[in-house]
Design brief:
CATH architecture of the domain at 520-560 and 889-1046: Up-down Bundle
Shape: elongated
Largest sheet: 9 strands, antiparallel
Mean pLDDT: 85
Structural class: alpha+beta
Number of helices: 36
Radius of gyration: 37 Å
Oligomer: single chain
Length: about 1050
């Protein structure tokens, strides 16, 4: 088939060149339209349900809301895990579905189940599905700050309520109007409310009930319609304008009449603006602020969307009040993306330069170099078209696949060009030269079979990547697609465009040199190789023994390498979580968080900090007010990363809090793996929260002694103070009250109730009735007057009020209560060793009946991926052997060629050891790639040995093997050196953003290419000399008209 393609391409030369030019133009156009992101799509389909249950304790939330919802969702098709958080007045349910399921179908299933169980939930508890978002969806954190007013009073500032108004009603709607933005979550400041504070004493004196106040307020501020009327031949719409935004109108609202005298609302209640009940606060650079989290929809171009958001912010900034700043960008994912993409693009560019240098040094011919290089842009753009067709984005992994393949893209063309040039020179030396077109076609056919099989093997060894499940599959499958597609595209270029260019650029002669025009470098290498070969044959046993010892040593050392899932990212931003003791007030937690900000600003590398304390109103993360999450923007420094982190930990150690230091994207990957934002999550399951807490505390003490464990945190499921009001049923009968009316009054007055909304343009503010804070104490509640049939009486006469405690939150997973111990591995620590120590500790730890533990995190994904890659790798090697056997009809020749794989492994292992790298999924991908590349050299040599015997009359022996080795030395060395040197940009500065994952891949390939090329130069000829004669004779006996064998 490929011979026919070569012939057709040479017959239709202009058509082929026109097609290549069209591919270049259309590929560039398509490439510019591809979305750009930091990583491939890592969104595991998840539906989040949030249910507000105002005032309910976590126990009631769990029993009445979370448990019924869990039960309903667990049976849905495709559900892999259901997690719930039952907090004070809030239930959050995370329903996780299997990878690859349709998120819209999942949401439909959830919606149907919600409709079926709605009647089982408490009145007013309405589960709401959060918008579809991406795990990498938080693209911006923006701090809205206000300048402090001058002490002289010359410059007046705005308060936290006005600042929050700007965030809620000016900034948020503008950003939500941008296509691709899924949610904008403001946090901090004061949410404006119209606060109605009943004066129970005046209510008793004027005989006004709570129901009367509520009824009057519910109808307040409403517009109604009066229908239509006809007058003067026109139709008039009748509108009743009752809506108002003036406090004075609300204060003068008539609640009731006593003896024809109206009783106004201000006579029985205070009416004023007030801040809503806060469960979260925010700060920027140690001062109060409003922080807005901008989240994107899945599959949206992050860089483009960020640019549109920044344009909108600039427009808004010009219209904001004096002293209000909206250009404080605390976190910008696009910066990491742009930096990472730029680094990988530079690696592609620099790798291309290295390819040019290597080719020219070997060929010393601009035309042959140009022909070979043509394969690079055509192959890369063809890969871009495939990205567009399959909806892939331009990210560090797809670009990384192209960067790794860069040196190999010219391999097929190099082999073709080198053979064509050699045959053209031989043809020019003949007394009667053959037609150039026929020489080029024959030369291309001569090497085509070996090149095709080598490319097929490269594709086969990548099979394990396409079967990886979970997050590792989502990460590395796009890399594999990019690599395989570009390699296949380079093969297509080599059989179509390369022969045509050879005809136009080389067909006029010998490309500017004599018939024996090897470059000085090539002549030197051939002389050296010839001497080494002649010295190797007599010492073949010693040579094979040394190679075997190297392979055994490398293989035996692999289990002792430190393990990791992925290399550490360099995001330039830290996420620091401070967990204080639950029960602390929001005010005190915010004060401690502000202190942490000040301490962080003392670290030289810290550029700016922003803090979020507790939980925002729209946020799906159920953080208590005891949690401070601080985003730290870093600037470049000469100090090593581990030194900077140690400095930060040392400064924050004065704060009595649990500490976790991570990075925004890394945190999200951890959360995707285990539901916890840490590398290691030890989950303890059971029925009783107190028992779980005790067991987890014991485990925490044991794990703290394990070397390499840092940031050890026990999930803050603790008992917090409660005021419990217990109604005395006998006394309620005595005073003519009902328990229901007392509970309703308590819920309304103590917890607060939203009665209506005041609408002012596009702004809305709740009208809330609630006791003043000074009355919401144990003493105040005891003296609270509640209405009965016989008048108002203090609450203490019908109910007992006592101080107690209860859980701050209850967490469940797959139907069981659980508590989590989370930790990270220290910088440079062996994750596998840390996990072994934790597992050993767990085996020695006794658990009560019905309780069990589960260890999850990055290591779990690493173990599963390693096992799958190992199994599928064996399958791939078996397929490679079968392909080679089908071509050569000899198990011996197939084994000789595959002998390059262990030789390459030696260099890969040595490179990891010398660089101090871990054995991660990324480095395993490097070994996969190396297995395919390393077989190419063996195929080229063995095929040429066979070709010399079949078609040029050479007899088996050392002279034939030496000749074949020298004639294939240039293409073998060029392909190996081009592939190796193209990786140099990824090897250098491997900690730069975008190169972190690709650096181990490139390191393994580079080391393996060095060892396999050096050892293959001697070992493949020696192996063929010792065991190749018999299979060669069989091929000669069965040759027939088969030209394809060579």
């Amino acid at each position: 088939m490929f011979n026919a393609i070569i012939q057709a391409s040479l017959r239709n030369r202009l058509f082929v060149l026109a097609g290549a030019a069209l591919l270049l133009l259309y590929g560039l156009f398509t490439l510019s339209r591809l979305p750009v992101d930091v990583l491939p799509d890592l969104n595991k389909p998840t539906v989040t349900l949030m249910t507000e249950a105002h005032g309910m304790a976590p126990e009631e939330v769990e029993q009445l809301i979370s448990f019924p919802l869990e039960t309903a969702m667990n049976g849905l098709e495709g559900v892999t895990r259901v997690r719930s958080v039952s907090g004070v007045g809030l239930s959050i349910l995370f329903v996780e579905f299997a990878w690859g399921t349709d998120i819209y179908l999942n949401r439909q299933q959830v919606a149907e189940r919600l409709g079926a169980i709605a009647s089982q939930l408490p009145v007013g508890a309405l589960p709401k599905m959060s918008p579809i978002s991406s795990i990498m969806g938080e693209i911006l954190l923006i701090a809205l700050t206000v300048e402090e007013p001058d002490a002289s009073g010359g410059k007046k500032g705005i308060g936290p309520m006005e600042a929050r108004d700007l965030a809620d009603w000016v900034v948020r709607p503008r950003l939500l109007a941008i296509p691709g933005v899924s949610q904008v979550i403001p946090m901090g400041g004061d949410v404006r409310q119209y606060r109605i504070t009943p004066d129970v004493g005046n209510m008793e004196r004027l005989s006004i009930s709570l129901d009367q106040i509520e009824s009057a307020l519910r109808g307040f501020a409403a517009n109604t319609s009066g229908g239509f009327l006809e007058a003067h031949s026109q139709e008039w719409l009748i509108r009743h304008i009752g809506r108002t935004t003036r406090l004075e109108d609300m204060r003068n609202l008539v609640v009731a009449h006593r003896e024809a005298v109206p009783i106004l609302l201000q006579q029985v209640a205070e009416v004023d603006f007030a801040a809503g009940v806060k469960r979260g606060a925010a700060g920027f650079m140690g001062r109060p602020a409003v922080i807005l989290s901008v989240q994107k929809q899945p599959s949206v171009d992050t860089v483009r969307l960020t640019g549109e958001v920044e344009t909108a912010l600039a427009e808004l900034g010009r219209s904001l009040p004096t002293g209000v700043k909206l250009d404080n960008i605390l976190f910008k994912q696009a910066s990491f993306i742009e930096n990472a993409i730029r680094n990988v693009e530079e690696a592609l560019r620099d790798g291309g330069v290295m390819v040019v240098v290597v080719l020219f040094l070997f060929l010393l011919n601009l035309r042959t170099t140009l022909i070979s290089l043509t394969a690079i842009p055509l192959s890369l753009l063809a890969a871009g078209l495939v990205f567009y067709a399959f909806g892939l984005s331009v990210n560090t992994m797809t670009l990384g696949g192209l960067a790794i393949a860069l040196g190999e893209l010219v391999d097929d063309a190099v082999v073709d060009v080198e053979n064509v040039l050699r045959r053209l020179r031989q043809n020019a030396a003949l007394s009667q030269p053959r037609p150039v077109l026929g020489v080029i076609a024959a030369a291309s056919r001569e090497v085509r079979s070996g090149v095709v099989y080598a490319t097929l093997i490269v594709v086969l060894v990548f099979v394990p990547l396409f079967f990886l499940a979970g997050i590792e599959g989502r990460l590395f499958t796009p890399l594999g697609i990019a690599y395989v597609v570009s390699i296949l595209a380079s093969l297509l270029v080599a059989v179509t465009v390369t022969p045509v260019l050879c005809y136009y650029l080389l067909g006029k002669g010998d490309a500017g040199r004599g018939a024996h025009g090897d470059s000085p470098l090539v002549r030197f290498l051939k002389r050296l190789d010839e001497r080494l070969l002649h010295a190797s044959f007599p010492r073949s046993g010693l040579l094979l023994g040394a190679a075997l010892a190297l392979v055994v040593t490398a293989t035996a050392s692999i289990p002792f390498f430190p393990k990791a899932f992925l290399p550490a990212f360099n995001e330039g931003t830290l996420t620091i979580t401070l967990m204080l003791q639950p029960g602390i007030s929001l005010t005190e937690s915010g004060r401690v968080g502000a202190l942490a900000e000040q301490l962080l600003l003392q670290v030289p590398e810290v550029k700016q900090v922003g803090r979020r304390t507790g939980r925002a109103e729209l946020d799906e993360h159920a953080e208590g007010v005891h949690t401070n999450e601080i985003e730290v923007d870093l600037q470049p420094s000469d100090r090593p990363r581990e030194v900077v982190l140690a400095d930060i930990r040392g400064r924050l150690s004065v704060i009595p809090a649990s500490l976790n230091i991570g990075q925004p994207i890394s945190h999200r990957l951890d959360h995707l793996l285990s539901g916890v934002r840490a590398q290691i999550a030890l989950k303890v399951f059971g029925d009783d929260t107190d028992s779980l807490r005790g067991l987890a505390a014991e485990l925490q003490a044991r794990l703290a002694a394990i070397p390499g464990v840092v940031d050890l945190q026990l999930e803050k499921q603790v008992r917090i103070p409660q005021l419990q009001v217990r109604v005395d049923y006998d006394k309620t009968q005595q005073y003519g009250a009902t328990p229901a009316s007392i509970n309703t009054a308590l819920e309304t007055l103590a917890n607060g109730e939203t009665l209506t909304q005041v609408i002012d343009g596009n702004r809305r503010a709740d009208v809330v009735i609630r006791l003043r804070d000074s009355d919401r104490t144990a003493g105040g509640l005891r003296n609270l007057l509640v209405e009965t049939h016989s008048g108002y009486i203090p609450l203490r006469m019908v109910a007992g009020i006592e101080e107690s405690s209860g859980p701050n939150q209850i967490l469940r997973e797959n139907g069981r209560r659980r508590i989590v111990l989370s930790a990270n591995a220290a910088e440079g620590a062996d994750m596998a060793e840390v996990i072994r120590a934790i597992r050993a500790e767990l085996e020695r730890f006794p658990l009560p009946e019905g309780y069990f533990t589960r260890l999850e995190g990055q290591f779990q994904a690493q173990e599963e991926a390693s096992q799958l890659i190992a199994v599928l790798g064996l399958v791939s090697l078996t397929l490679v052997f079968l392909v080679l056997y089908s071509r050569y009809q000899s198990a011996v020749l197939a084994a000789i060629i595959m002998g390059n794989i262990p030789l390459a492994m030696v260099g890969g292992v040595a490179a990891l050891w010398l660089a101090g790298q871990t054995l991660s999924v990324a480095s395993m991908v490097g070994f996969i790639t190396l297995a395919g590349i390393s077989t190419r050299n063996g195929i080229l040599k063995i095929s040429h040995y066979i070709n010399l015997a079949l078609h040029e009359g050479e007899t088996f022996g050392i002279p034939m093997i030496v000749r074949g080795s020298l004639e294939r030395l240039v293409p073998v060395l060029m392909t190996a050196l081009v592939a190796a040197f193209a990786l140099l940009p990824l090897l250098l500065a491997g900690g730069d953003p975008g190169k972190e994952i690709l650096h181990p891949v490139a390191l393994v390939i580079f080391g393996g290419l060095v060892s396999s090329t050096l050892l293959d130069t001697l070992l493949t000829p020696v192996l063929f000399w010792r065991w190749g004669e018999k299979p060669l004779m069989q091929l000669l006996a069965n040759r027939g008209d088969n030209d394809e064998i060579a």
